Amino acid sequence: MDSRLTTEIVAYNIESALNAQAGGADRIELCDNPSGGGTTPSVGTVELLREKLDIPIFVMIRPREGDFCYSDLEFEAMKRDISHCKDRGADGVVFGILSPDGSLDFDRCKELIELARPLQVTCHRAFDMTSDPFEALESCIEAGFDRILTSGQQTCAHEGIATIAELVERAGNRISMMAGCGVNEDTVQKIIEETDVREIHFSAKDDRPSKMKYRNKAINGMGDKSGKEYSIRIASQNRVARICQMALAADSSVSS
């Protein structure tokens, strides 16, 4: 397993992906729908960014927001999305499927992993919704995942440090544990130093104002995102650079 710390930025749009690369990130996780926790982006976005980026692109495979217990039709959609990603040059895919009892849906996950190869495969934070993280760890390893994104089954990774550290220890060299959610300038050093993760995942979130000069003040909310028409969520290039530098410094301190 690579000893160098890897930084991954979750990018919800083209601008964020470009900012992530410019800020020095090692990889992006490409998603849509930030308010829903991330769903599958469009084929056109994947295709375009593959042309524009030099760093790896891992694509979220999630047919809807909500839980991770999917119908047969949703599972079929996930398979088709994986095939589209392979055809358009993605480097990896990101997904997770759970059974109603809170365990990993082993058979379905294994089927998607086999379909995705030779791409890298990450189990996303569906892992944090499992009933037993240590049992789920072994299931992920047996199914063939390359890494697990986790906050230690807490809202934010810095609140789940003890669990993440134990997962890292139990995983050994069998699978990579990637800490994510709530990773920022205030928490990244502590998370790395106290968990020994080799991968870190964050958003470097910022909002920029719309470039629209005309604004219809009679409408406040398209759908359920009140007031968001003229505010664009992006990954900040400056924050990406700053957090990456802090992460690498913390990692060097741990390694020395």
From TrEMBL:
* Localization (cell): Cytoplasm
What Gene Ontology molecular-function terms does this entry list?
copper ion binding
Q: Name one GO cellular component term.
A: cytoplasm
Chief place of localization: cytoplasm
Q: Which UniProt keywords apply?
A: Cytoplasm
- The domain of life for this entry's organism is Bacteria
Q: Which family does the similarity line name? A: Belongs to the CutC family.
Matches recorded under PANTHER family: COPPER HOMEOSTASIS PROTEIN CUTC (PTHR12598), COPPER HOMEOSTASIS PROTEIN CUTC HOMOLOG (PTHR12598:SF0)
This protein is called what? PF03932 family protein CutC
Highest classification ranks of the organism: Bacteria, Pseudomonadati, Balneolota, Balneolia, Balneolales
